[in-house]
Amino acid sequence: MENILLVEDDLNLIDGLEYSLNKNGFSVDIARTVREAFSFCADRKYDLLILDLTLPDGMGFEICKRVRLTSTVPIIFLTASDEEVNVVMGLDIGGDDYITKPFKLNELIARIKALLRRSNAFQKETSAVSSNGITIEFMNNRALKNGQALELTVSEFKLLSLLMQNPNITLTRTGILDKLWDGDGDFIDDNTLSVYVRRLRRKIEDNPDHPQILLTVRGIGYKWNVVK
């Protein structure tokens, strides 16, 4: 049974979410504040986090930032319609997906299952690949730059893996989304992919504003350019 931490302070929403998640075979812990979430994360390992953006004692961003210091656990943000401007920030600091309130419970369940599939069933054909000073050790589920471990989210790691396994080949945006997000175009859009690419560049490029290895091919997609 996969463990989920739900961080939400709306009691009416909590009841529906907890029931639906349990019905779909998930074990659920409920935290209603940032402080409670920190306590749960310190005591237990989770397979996925669902974080409301606005909480009584702070923001879901705070939880995400702390979790990302040590973990690549998938994170979904819950956001109100007037908070969508914060979505890019949430993805930038390590979130993997978001859903806007009000939402249908079956849509959230579908997104959770898709994200867990990506996290648990991303198959690797080789033990390691290296280029441009970057090495991916698939068995250890980690990436290194010049021998130093990179702090990558699940989605960043998978995007980097896909690109590096297809060196000097232009991958279409649609193809990347199909590979990494199960082809569920209703769940992840083009803008989200752009955020992941920008965030990954900040971690692997010497000068992210003038990328040399993760290139944009205008109107098509992206290419891993092997330069050394």
TrEMBL record:
What are the residue boundaries of the Response regulatory domain, all occurrences included?
A: 3-116
Q: 4-aspartylphosphate: which positions carry it?
A: D52
- One Pfam family matching this protein: Response_reg
Q: Which InterPro entries match?
A: CheY-like_superfamily (IPR011006), OmpR/PhoB-type_DNA-bd (IPR001867), Sig_transdc_resp-reg_C-effctor (IPR016032), Sig_transdc_resp-reg_receiver (IPR001789), WalR-like (IPR039420), WH-like_DNA-bd_sf (IPR036388)
Q: A GO term (biological process) for this protein?
A: regulation of DNA-templated transcription
> What keywords were assigned to this record?
DNA-binding, Phosphoprotein, Transcription, Transcription regulation
Start-end of DNA-binding region: 126-226
Record's superkingdom? Bacteria
Q: Domain named OmpR/PhoB-type: which ranges?
A: 126-226
- Gene Ontology cellular component terms for the protein in this record: cytosol; protein-DNA complex
Record SMART domains: REC (SM00448), Trans_reg_C (SM00862)
What Gene Ontology molecular-function terms does this entry list? phosphorelay response regulator activity; transcription cis-regulatory region binding
Give the protein's recorded name. Response regulator transcription factor
- Protein's organism: Paratissierella segnis
